[in-house]
Structures are given as structure tokens and as C-alpha cells.
Amino acid sequence: MTTVDFAAWSCPVPLRDTPAVVMGHGGGGAMSAELVEQLFLPAFGASPDDLGDSAVVTAGGARLAFSTDSYVVKPMFFPGGSIGDLAVNGTVNDLAMSGATPLYLSTAFILQEGTDLAVVGRIAQAMGLAAAAAGVRLVTGDTKVVDSASGDGVFVTTAGIGLVAPGVEIGPRRARPGDVVLVSGDIGVHGIAVMSCRDGLSFGTSVLSDTAPLAGLVAAMLGSGGDVRVLRDPTRGGVAASLNEIARASGVGVSLAERDLPVPAAVRDACSLLGLDPLQVANEGNLIAIVAPGAADEVLATMRAHPLGAGARVIGTCVADHPGMVVARTALGGTRVISLPIGEQLPRIC
Amino acid sequence: MKYLDEFSDPVLARRLLDQIHAVTTRPWAMMEVCGGQTHSIIRHGIDQLLPDGIELIHGPGCPVCVTPLEMIDRALAIASRPGVIFCSFGDMLRVPGSGRDLFTVKSQGADVRVVYSPLDALEIAKSHPDREVVFFGIGFETTAPANAMTVHQARRLGIRNFSLLVSHVLVPPAIAAIMESPSCRVQAFLAAGHVCSVMGTDQYPALAAKYGVPIVVTGFEPLDILEGIRQTVVLLEAGRAEVGNAYPRAVPPAGNLPARAMLEDVFEVADRTWRGIGMIPGSGWRLSERYREFDAEERFAVGEIHTDESPLCRAGEVLQGHIKPHECAVFGKECTPRNPLGATMVSSEGACAAYYAYRRLELVSL
Amino acid sequence: MCLAVPGQVMSIAERDGTLMADVDFGGVRKDVCLQYVPDATVGEYVVVHVGFAIQRLDEESALQTLANFEQLGILEEEFGAK
């Protein structure tokens, strides 16, 4: 039988085959990863080991988590939130995934000329409310305007810093065989809420974005005393992308049970209609935690006691088999590999 | 969702599997024609649960995979024209033409839009009367009524800035072509349920009789596929080359008569080249004379297109069931979903992409 | 080919001379062209592909098929017990 060279798969083809930037480079999947690993990291002299949701640096004796993110979501207002909520919660969550207590955010706006000021006002209001809810302060910012041909409404960038307490060690390389994989709540909600009002796709749904600040939940989990090893908020590329990244970074396999995945019926049905995999759909208010085997019960109980973790559950384990790969057991008893999504999520007809 | 969840029930699936094991006495090779079924089979791991002797050969029923390279190059050329809004189902955006795909053309400034339905493209045409809106009309008999209705509406409402780039293909001629192939190993067919929802089953008894193969109309949920396989094995074991229907809730024998009438009006049968297989006589539809003015090929004279497939790609053999995807030397190496050499690696229902996505585990340990 | 899913017709209206329906897919709502299934009524299930109902879903037949599957198992168990 043909033996397949596994190494050839994990080494992505070079960028030369797309000489220009395409939308998939921003999709959070394999194409985004290539852009970072093959273009940005070499230019910055940085190492792939530095890649987490945020960087942890030491300054003046304190350990700081530092992160930045840009928001270009279309449409800017969607069921359950807006680009303003995402801009605050997204960066707060990236900091929280390092185990940090988020403190201060900066923000930069790129506004397209002609954009209604009321729209900018609504976004700013949403950011202020989200920051208050997350317990962080927006302390510095910048605004630029581009001509009507160069922009598309409002683009928002935020950066944030947070404090990492002594002894907290969270990182994508720390997963070990035997560790338990937890998710804090429903999967795929945000992506479906946004897709439901996108041009050319629009459908009616009761699904609201789950956008929420997760720092409080993380603080509770760390306070439980259990050994939390990896945290990840599965945004673009969904749970599939996050688990693949953890599997690769830690050199472990991840084994999931499909029937344990908390996919709400409305998300499952929208995915059936559009031909999408809920595991690849974006989330903005849940997290994946990899915890030491002995700590799982305790951490899970702590999560469930928190309003944002009420739906927390075990979805799988880390294994020594198939390192770097995520494999799910299907409801019928078969298995399938959960791949890293490539680029953009596209609805399919077939 | 109602009528999906019930047909995915693991307990009933187990019972059907037990039945399949009980009725199977020797090896059988059957082809699921439809790529949607291939996707479902691999996605749920159904192939792993069947008796060892039951081989599922993955057929050419993936419209994205079999759309010829010339047609994709034509789509890329039209999409690149100034003033054109090119609309497509999401599936087609990543399919490589000669050296680029619709995503690349979009990044170079073309206005390429993903729509859920061809009617969405017609809406875009209505709201942009100064632009030419082209819809890439691919698909089998299931999708054709939607495209037919859209062109019909365009004509009725006088929307002249809309046109259709037609690349429709038909299942029965493909089944015949596969059976005529000298190296054919297919002993039975699982026919594509939703194609039959439209076209009915009246074309199949003649095919079953001529080639001596059972043909069982099969749905897409796990229980539907298992029942299709069970009925097929029962017919094979009894030596009966008959037509069965394992998907009666969505397939009445006559299909959908209003849809068939519309297809008759809007399209006419034409020869069609299938990517990876070649020209199959009478295996496609093109716009009939009455609707020819809406044909994007006529409206945008692109000229002759000469194309070269990658010499390494064996998609044709995969589509005809001669080899399994991983038996191709470039599978997973030069050819990945990220950098596909052939269309079967692009569409999520393409056999190669389905194997790559879901089956790497066993392939690695083989 | 051909991702088609069953949904329930919630309301029917004519638009631009075309029969359209609001169809519910377990909470997800979508506008669907009903021109090919003109006799479908509110409350019935239709099979939808790319925004078009291509067939009514025969609920009686669906239930019969499921009942047959249940029966298969029972028959087998009885057979095995003999």
C-alpha cells in the first residue's frame, strides 16, 4: 500500500503560488499561518515559539501579557454585538489566554470618508461599555481617515496589556498526553450570527453572537488551583484551528468525541444549510482549556459555577498517538481527522 | 433539524450495519455516484464500519470536480472583464484554472461574489443595471432547475444585464460511460437522491438492465446511505439487476414535473467534457435557442482556450473509480487542498479532498 | 453533489409573479422559491437546494422508513432468539 509522507503535509507549500494577498490570508487557517511563519517571523527575527494569543514579556520586574488585533468585520453590527464589542473583547480575551489580568487597551480607527458619524458613535459607545464590563481602561488612541475608495466603513485596531501573576504558566506548548480538553460553552455561535446577515447569504436566525470578555472566567479557573496548561479562544478558524495549533505546538495528538461537542441546534442547522463544519466556525465568547488529568473535575466545576462557563464540558483528551493531529470519533463509531481550515469559510452547494 | 437528526441515529445505524453484515456473503464493489454521499460516508466514517468485502468506489458526482479546465479559464477571463460582477457558489472559488483561481482574480481587482442561490445573482443584476452580472451555472440535475428558473425570470422581467455561464452535467450518461470503460469494476450504483428528486427514476431501469447492475436511489444522511448499501447488497446477492429506492421520502418515481418542464424549456442536451474523464456525448445541458441571448459564452466572446492539466494528477482515474485518492503518487505531497493539482482535491466533496481531510490517520499508518 | 435539506414552510407569498415561501430549518429561516412545488402548503416540509424547493418531503414515507429500520432490528433479534 502507498505510504504517505506525513512530513510533507505539515510543511505548507511556499507563498510563491499566491504572489498577491488573497482573502484567505486573513482567514485564521493554514494560509494565515503561512503568512506569519514564512513572511513576518523571518523579517522580524522572531521565533515560532513566540506565537500565542498574546506575548508574555518581562518589564521592570513584572510579567506583562501584550497583544494586538485588527477588526474588519462585515457587517459592523450583527445580532448580539458590533465591531466595537469585538475590538475590546477580542483583545481582552487574547490577554486572558496567557493567564493575564487585562488592564489597559489602546485603540486606532481607520475611517472611510463619508461614514456616518452616528455609526462611529455607536461603535465608540459599544467599546466604552465593553471595556467597563471587562474591567479594562481605554487609555490611548489614534484616528485616520482614508478616501472613499480605500476603506470600507470602519476598521478598528486595539492593543492591550495585562499582568501575569507569578507562577502562572499558560502556553500552547504545554499540553501532554493524558491531559483533558475542556470547552467553556457552545461552539460556532458567533460565526453563524455574523453570517446570517452577510450580503448574499442572509438568513434569519435566533442565534446571537457570544462576544464576551473571558478574563473573569480565566481568573476563576486559575484560582481553582488546578494545573491549567493551555488556554485558547477559538476565534477565526474555530475549534478546529485552535486544537490543531495546540496539537502541533505541543507535539501531542488530540482525540475528540463528536457526540460530546456542544453545538447548539440552531448552529448545527445553519451549518447543514450552508455546508459548513461547526468546528471551523468562529467563536468570540468561549475558550478551550487543556488541563492536567487530575485537575479536570475541579477546573470544570469552577467553570460551571461562572456565568460564562455554565455550559462547560469535556470534549476530548490529549494522546500520544498521531502527534500534531486532531481526530474525532464520529457518532456512528468511525473516525475522522479534523483539519486545520485552509482559508475563508465558504458556503457550499454540494 | 427534523428529518435530518432522525436519519443520523447511531442506534438505528448499528442495526442497519448488523443487517448489512448479515446479508453480505462475498465481496462487492459499488459506486456512490454523488460527491455529497462521498463526503457523508467519509465524514461519518461509514466506510470503516462496513464488512471488509464491501468496497465503495467514489464516483464523479461532484460538479466542481468535473467542470472542465477550459470552462474555469473562461470563467476567469469573464470575471476579469471591467464592469462584470461575477457570481458563483462558494465551492468554485478555489478551483484552479490554468495557473489561478477565482480568489486570485478577485485579489487582482475583479468583482467576484459568493452567493447562496442564483436568485441572489439576479437580485444583484437588478440593483446594478449599469453592470454585467454573470452567474457560474454549474451542477447536476439537482441544481439545474434553480439556474433554469433564474434565466427564465431574467427573460420574463427583462433583466438584460444578467447572463449564465452554463456547465451543467447529467448523471445517466456518466453511469453509462463508466460502465462502458473496459477496466470498470463497478457492480452496482447508489444513485444520487436529490438528482432523482428532480428527474425521477424512469431513466434507470434501462441502464440497470443494459449493464446488469442494481441501481439504488440513495439519500445523504448516515441511515439513508446505510439503507442504500443494504438494499444494494440484497439485490447483488440475489443477482437482481433492478432499480430500488432507499430515499422514497424525497424521491417520487416521476421526480418533479414542473421542474422537468422548465428544464425542457430552458436547456437542451449537449455534449460535455468532464474534467478528468473526457468528452461524454449528450452528458450536459446548454441554454436552448429561446434563451441563448442569456448565454455568457455568447455575450463575452472569450475565444479559443487551450489548457493543460497537470501531468501528475490522476483525478480521472479517481473519478472513474480505478484508483483510490491515496494511490496517486502526488496525493498529500505536491497535491493538497491548499495547493491542488486537480479539482478532486479542491471541493470538499471531491474524493481526494475528503480523503485528505478525514482519512490521513489510517493512510499514515498503512 | 447537491446539498439539499428539509425545511418547514411557514408562510407563502407571491413576489414579482413568483411563488416564494418563508422556510424554517430548525430555527434558521430562509426565503425559498416555491415555484417547483406550487401545491405545498403551510406546515409541510420541502427539500431545499440553493434557495429552491425541489421536492415535497413525504412525511408518511419518512416515518415508514424509520419504522422499517426499527423493525429490521427487532426481526433480527427475534430471529437470533429462535
From TrEMBL, chain A:
Q: Where is the PurM-like C-terminal domain?
A: 176-322
Domain PurM-like N-terminal, chain residue ranges per copy: 53-164
A biological process (GO) of this protein is: protein maturation
Q: Which InterPro entries match?
A: HypE, PurM-like_C_dom, PurM-like_C_sf, PurM-like_N, PurM-like_N_sf
- Going by the entry's taxonomy, the superkingdom of the source organism is recorded as Bacteria
The family note in this entry says: Belongs to the HypE family.
Q: What is this protein called?
A: Hydrogenase maturation protein, carbamoyl dehydratase HypE
Tell me the organism: Asanoa ishikariensis
Automatic annotation (TrEMBL), chain B:
Q: What InterPro entries has UniProt attached to this entry?
A: Hyd_form_HypD, HypD_1, HypD_2_sf
Q: Which UniProt keywords apply?
A: Iron, Metal-binding
Q: Does the keyword Signal apply?
A: no
Q: Which GO terms describe its molecular function?
A: 4 iron, 4 sulfur cluster binding; carbon monoxide binding; iron ion binding
- Superkingdom per UniProt: Bacteria
Q: Name one GO biological process term.
A: protein maturation
Record's keyword annotation contains Metal-binding: yes
Q: Report the family membership.
A: Belongs to the HypD family.
Query: What is this protein called in UniProt?
Result: Hydrogenase expression/formation protein HypD
Phylogenetic lineage: Bacteria, Bacillati, Actinomycetota, Actinomycetes, Micromonosporales
UniProtKB/TrEMBL annotation, chain C:
GO terms of biological process kind = protein maturation
**Coiled-coil stretches:** none
Give the source's domain of life in one word. Answer: Bacteria
- A single Pfam family it belongs to is HupF_HypC
Gene Ontology MF term list = carbon dioxide binding; iron ion binding
Q: Which PANTHER family match?
A: HYDROGENASE MATURATION FACTOR HYBG
| Similarity-based family | Belongs to the HupF/HypC family.
Fetch the NCBIfam families from UniProt: hypC_hupF
What's this protein's name? Hydrogenase expression/formation protein HypC
